[in-house]
Amino acid sequence: MVNTEITYSISELAKEFDITTRSIRFYEDQGLLKPQRRGQTRIYNVQDRVRLKLILRGKRLGFSLAETGRLFDLYDADRTSRTQLHTMLQLIEEKKRDLQQQLDDIKIVMMELSSAESQCQQALRSLVQD
């Protein structure tokens, strides 16, 4: 069972996830994190920590903050929803398509660079022979 009484300061989370406190405040401004307040002090709970971890993982996988927020909203609305699962599957499929396109583009650029490299090397060899 998760202890929901554990709390974290913004600096503790920043240190744990190796990000700036400014980044955490930005995620809060975007509505992705909702810490409690004690005066000016932000108090983050276990759910905030999990959400921060998911935000950062989503970013590494290419999910926008809007997409992550959409998933959080779906989760908050209904934690066992078919809609949530279908939306997640749709987002995954879109990301896979995007990544495949990027991979194809990278392969083409690599071939073009290799061709340009060969032409440059050939031009250098012909200059040396002259």
- State the strand order across the main sheet: 1-3-2
Biggest sheet layout: 3 strands, antiparallel
Q: What proportion of the residues is helical, as a percent range?
A: over 70%
Distance between the termini: 78 Å
Strand content range: 5-15%
Element-level helix/strand string: EHHEEHHH
Low-confidence sequence ranges: none
Top CATH class of the domain at 7-77: Mainly Alpha
| CATH-scheme architecture of the domain at 7-77 | Orthogonal Bundle
Overall average pLDDT: 88
- DSSP helical segment count: 5
What is the tally of beta strands?
A: 3
Shape category: elongated
Question: Which secondary-structure class do the elements indicate?
Answer: mainly alpha
Determine Rg (CA atoms, Å). 23 Å
What fold name stands as the CATH topology of the domain at 7-77? Multidrug-efflux Transporter Regulator, Chain: A, Domain 2
Description:
- The chain has 130 residues and is mainly alpha-helical.
- The chain has a domain at 7-77: Multidrug-efflux Transporter Regulator, Chain: A, Domain 2 (Orthogonal Bundle).
- The chain contains 5 helices and 3 strands; from the N terminus they run βααββααα.
- The chain has helices at 10-17, 21-29, 46-60, 65-77, 82-129; strands at residues 7-8, 36-38, 41-45.
- The chain has a 3-stranded antiparallel sheet with strand order 1-3-2.
- Helix 1 (10-17) crosses helix 2 and helix 4 (65-77) packs antiparallel against helix 5 (82-129).
- The longest helix has 48 residues, at 82-129.
- The N and C termini lie far apart (78 Å).
- GO terms for molecular function: DNA binding.
- It comes from Ferrimonas gelatinilytica.
- InterPro entries: DNA-bd_dom_put_sf, MerR-type_HTH_dom, MerR_fam.
- Pfam families: MerR_1.
- Keywords: Coiled coil, DNA-binding.
